[in-house]
Write a structure and sequence with these properties.
The complex is a heterodimer.
Chain A: E1 5-9, H1 14-30, E2 33-41, H2 44-50, H3 55-77, E3 85-92, H4 95-105, E4 110-114, H5 128-136, E5 141-144, H6 147-151
Parallel strand pairs in A: 1-2, 1-4, 2-3, 4-5
Helix pairs in contact in A: 4-5
Chain B: E1 4-8, H1 13-29, E2 32-39, H2 43-48, H3 52-72, E3 79-85, H4 88-98, E4 103-107, H5 121-129, E5 134-137
Parallel strand pairs in B: 1-2, 1-4, 2-3, 4-5
Helix pairs in contact in B: 4-5
The chains are: A alpha/beta, B alpha/beta.
């Protein structure tokens, strides 16, 4: 059987760490390949101007990418040696759409997301990005919760 | 390890797709499949006024759906079918907790009447309330 590809969008939140744990467990038992994705969620206009404007914007972008790399490295550290995994850091002004576009590009067989990420609206049980991905993805989507949130 | 997959079935196209995906995954992971049909009947109604004939008809309809799911599973994959009555979303979550299910696999929408929505009300409730991960199949 061909290796299945599992896309795991992560933002460093507890729920996204739970998604990482679930995805590598699944990948380990199903012999799938894991692709971690961190979307640097910056405003579109900012991204366009960042190339041209002064050092300051550029360093904001660099900082954001640095943070993304740290989150990706954390996920890769959590991945056992028997699972093939890669990390991708992509900037985009619409995290959900960037995730869906990446899923198509890498021909993902499945997406594993946390039930909600770092978004400000804590009361929502399913975050806006997770909800959008769940509704619009062409492939199956697993929604995972961190243990603490699952208790609530 | 992911050993127990719960697939709530209602005979809809979405639930058929969930069964197919669950079989695919169980083949790769070696997990056991738990099929659950929930007859959407209030317990009070059962006690109060439902005739045995109606109850029997509902149970039979559920068994047809469960049998169809069970027949799709190739030999070598462990499987079991369960039939319950009650509010589907609540019964599904209780079953998942009671049986230490590792993953719930379900269609994005079942037989519910509102066709426009992308995620049915039962699927939505389970994604939001479930303690274990939920796989939603399109």
């Amino acid at each position: 059987m061909e290796h299945k590809v599992i896309l795991v969008p992560i933002d460093g939140s507890d729920n996204s760490l739970a998604a990482v744990r679930n995805a590598v467990e699944l990948a380990s038992s199903c012999h799938a390949v894991v692709e971690f994705l961190h979307v640097v969620n910056l405003d579109g206009a900012f991204i366009q101007s960042a190339g041209e404007c002064q050092k300051r914007c550029h360093s904001v972008l660099e900082d954001a990418v640095d943070v993304g790399r740290k989150i990706l490295n954390q996920a890769l550290d959590m991945t056992p040696d028997d699972v093939e995994a890669k990390g991708h850091c992509i900037s985009g002004d619409d995290a959900a759409q960037t995730i869906l576009t990446s899923a198509e590009k890498i021909d993902a067989d499945m997406i594993v997301v946390g039930s909600r990420g770092l978004g400000a609206f804590r009361a929502a049980l399913l975050g806006s990005v997770s909800s959008y991905v769940l509704s619009h993805a062409c492939c199956p989507v697993i929604v995972v919760k961190a243990a603490r949130q699952a208790e609530k | 390890m992911l050993r127990k997959f719960l697939i709530p079935v209602d005979g809809s196209e979405g639930s058929d797709k969930a069964v197919a995906e669950a079989i695919d995954m169980a083949e790769a992971c070696g997990a056991k499949l738990y099929f659950l049909y929930v007859a959407n009947i209030n317990q009070l109604a059962i006690n109060a006024c439902l005739s045995d004939a109606i109850l029997e008809a509902v149970t039979k309809a559920g068994n047809v759906i469960l049998d169809r799911a069970m027949e799709m599973v190739p030999s070598g994959i462990e499987k079991e079918a369960f039939s319950e009555t009650g509010s589907p979303a609540v019964v599904i979550l209780d079953f998942a907790t009671g049986n230490s299910i590792d993953l719930i696999i379900m269609g994005s929408r079942g037989l519910g009447v509102v066709k426009g929505v992308l995620l049915g009300s039962v699927s939505q409730y389970i994604v939001e309330q479930s303690k274990c991960p939920v796989l939603v199949v399109k």
